[in-house]
Structures are given as C-alpha cells and as structure tokens.
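Q: Predict the assembly, please.
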Amino acid sequence: MARAATTTDAFNAIAEPRRREILDALASGERPVGDLVDLLGVAQPQISKHLRVLREVGAVEVRSDGRRRLYSVNGEALKPIFDWVSEYERTWTERFQRLDDVLEELKSNEREEGQDDEQRDE
Amino acid sequence: MSNATSSRKAEVTLPGDDQILITRDFDAPKHLVWKAFTTPELVARWWSGHRGRTTSAEIDLRVGGKWRYVMEVGTGPAAGAEIAFHGEYREVVPNERLVSTEVFEQIPDDYAVNTMTLSEVDGVTRMEVLVQHNSKEARDGHINSGMEGGMQEAMDLLEEIAISLA
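A: Predicted assembly structure:
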C-alpha cells in the first residue's frame, strides 16, 4: 500500500479546497455524481477521484438507488476536523485583521513622509 | 478600502501529511508587510488577536538569531495566564522570505519549521506561512490538541482568541 499516503489522511482529505466544496454540496442531502459535476463545473473523472478519497477516510458514504449511486456526507466523522480547521482559520483571520490595521498606519506614515520629501524637494 | 481588507479570511489547508499552510492577501506593499511581521513593537500589536495582550516580543533578525513572543490571556477562565513561543531564524531574506523554528513552550519537545513567503502583485501582497512539522504525528498532535485532552487548556486559550472575533 505505497499509494498516496496524503490522500488517505482524513485531515488532508477534508482540507483540500475542492473536496471541501464537494462536502458543502453534499451537506444539503445526498446526490449522484452528475449533480456534483454540474454544481462545481468540474469533469466527472476529477469528481470521482475526490469522492474516492473522501470515501476512503469515511467522510462520504455511497448507496445504490436502482442504477444510480447516491453520495452523502458522514457528518460525525467530519465534525472534529471541520471544527479544528475553522478555529485555526479564525485565529489567523483575527491576527491578520489586526495586522491590516498596523499596515494601514504604516501606509499612511509612508504617504506623509513622501509628502514631506516632496515639500523638501520644492 | 480597509473594509474590504478586514473581511479577508485566512485560508488554511493541509497540503501534506506533516504540513499546514496559511494564506492571506494584504492590501499593502510587501516591504510594509515584512516590517509589520518583523518589528517587535508592531508584532506586539497584532500577534495576540483581540482577547490577549502581547507582553513581550523579542526579535533578533539574523540567521541563527532567536525570537520569543509572550501573550497574556486577557479574559475568560484563564485570564492572566501566559503562553509563550520561541524559535530561531534559519533564513532571512528581507521582504521575501523568513524561515524560523517555532517551539510552543508548553510542549518543548516538539517544534515546527515555519516558512513565511511574500509575493506582491499590483500593491497586494500575498503571505504564505507553511508550518512544517517533523512528522505526521506531530502535525496531528497540533491538530488533535484542539479536540482532545493534554493541550486542551492551551488550545482553549487559542479558541478564546479566535471566538472573540465574532
């Protein structure tokens, strides 16, 4: 089993942006692959590949309905990981908002200095 | 303009088994982002978020130089508690790239290597912080600590900071 250690890790499986889109799309209810292709505008082989990864880590389940295969989210398996990524994201988002404030100040200082320089040049 | 930037989210992905990647765009040229990221009195203003207070930020900005940040938790059950991080600079390329080790002093046996890179397009600077743990287990420890015991208290502090955003 040398294959793709990264894709069998639940955290990686769920943190990949496209796979999070698929999970978002499945959050409202089970869907066939074709729905996901239409919704996300991604070719079916790619969608199928992502679904396979998500199934391997237990994040997505599938059942047969006649000839269709319907995919759904296994919410319980996902919640801790979603929670962690969201919290981590919030922590950094907040830090960076304060960094924005510092940058606004540095920018206005630089503008003022630039004006001073111009005045001196004149 | 500042309204647009303040709604920007930090994007977090897990690109490898032992990695965490944080990406964010800033509405400022990269030499100012670098300045805000590496000047102690400026770091003290943003690093702790809203709930905590950065009581100390030491930066010796050269290869082999040390850094250490200390935060005092401002509110909640752990108010007054201090948490600290420190490390050493491995690469310093002004306005471009900063590589440093990071140790969370509550679990001193583990460390990560953080690579911060800046790229600027049309006055907007993209910052990427790649957190490289020395193993998948260490990264998952970083992650799992938010959900399980052990580091729970420290993670609660981080969570409080995060929640205060709302």
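Residues 5 and 94 of chain B are 24 Å apart (CA to CA). The beta strands of chain B are 11-13, 19-26, 52-59, 66-73, 82-93, 97-104, 112-121, 124-133.
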